[in-house]
Design a protein that fits this description.
37% of the residues lie in helices and 17% in strands. The chain has 251 residues and is an alpha/beta fold. A six-stranded parallel beta sheet has the order 3-2-1-7-8-9, with helices on both faces. Bound molecules: nicotinamide-adenine-dinucleotide (NAD) and zinc ion.
Length: 251
């Protein structure tokens, strides 16, 4: 087994509290494109024109048409991959305290993870811009764009647009978890969107090990993370899981 994989399996088994920070990269193998990088949505559209709250307020129909409708269609068919399943298994085995995800796709929960903080909210729920009523996306009529609440107001996904605050309870809980962890697994994120990108720094300042899983180096690599396991999250987490399985049931 690869030395870094073995080292990571041993670290996880010996740790007191492990937390994972995940990003769009972990869901690429489920067919959901990331925002940045090759094949990313930002190659096709300008983030400020479609993902900023001001753009949504100015022209909700346009944002629903360009971004949200397609994203929503992808999310209804996407299934968790080995990356999500691996993290869920680590939690079940008692080696992972919580996942803090920047994703809005619900795939960690679909994989069986129970302790999940949806740092940027979720696409699984909609919220009315006028009366604040929340409704499960599955129950909203998306054949009419923009979709509307019974009060006539326009629905928006219950996620965090650029230009909006992170829900304070998610920020506080994430900081507590990261403050208290001795290992932070950073999986499939370029760690460039603040304030989520702060979490690895916070972990390091508190003496935790920061371990990255990503096919590409990120701004954390060589500066904040202890090391990078270079590869897709599904394959790497499968290997780590096999290593952990051997350590917990020695022959
Ligand atoms: P990002 O788009 O900035 O970066 C994606 C990262 O994934 C890159 O570092 C890339 O090298 C890596 N990657 C590529 N293939 C991978 C693989 N097979 N396994 C693991 N990693 C792989 O993503 P981000 O840092 O999460 O920031 C984008 C923001 O956009 C997030 O805040 C998120 O809310 C949102 N977003 C969410 C989804 C989703 O819910 N699935 C999809 C797109 C964007
Ligand atoms: Zn309403």
């Amino acid at each position: 087994m690869d030395a870094l994989i073995q080292q990571t399996a041993e670290t996880l088994v010996g740790a007191r509290s492990v937390v994972a920070l995940t990003g769009a990269g972990i869901s690429i193998e489920s067919g959901i494109p990331p925002f940045r990088g090759p094949g990313g949505l930002w190659e096709k559209m300008d983030p400020m024109a479609v993902a900023h709250i001001d753009a949504f307020r100015r022209d909700p129909e346009k944002v629903w048409t360009l971004l949200l409708h397609g994203m929503q269609a992808l999310l209804t068919t996407a299934r968790p991959n080995d990356g999500h399943l691996g993290l869920a298994r680590l939690e079940q085995w008692g080696y992972l305290r919580s996942v803090i995800t920047q994703n809005v796709d619900g795939l960690h929960q679909a994989a069986g993870s129970r302790a999940v903080i949806e740092f940027h909210g979720t696409f699984a729920w909609q919220r009315c811009m006028d009366c604040g009523h929340r409704c499960e996306t599955a129950r909203v009529d998306l054949t009419k764009i923009p979709p509307r609440c019974p009060c006539g107001g326009i629905y928006r996904p219950d996620c965090v647009f650029f230009g909006e605050m992170i829900p304070p309870q998610h920020l506080v809980r994430s900081q507590q978890l990261v403050d208290g962890c001795d290992v932070l697994l950073v999986v499939g994120t370029s760690a460039t969107v603040q304030p989520a990108a702060m979490m690895p720094l916070l972990a390091k300042e508190n003496g935790a090990q920061v371990i990255e899983i990503n096919p590409e180096p990120t701004p954390l690599t060589g500066r904040i993370s202890n090391y990078l396991i270079q590869g897709g999250s599904g394959a790497v987490l499968n290997d780590i899981l096999a290593g952990v399985a051997k350590l917990r049931a020695p022959s």
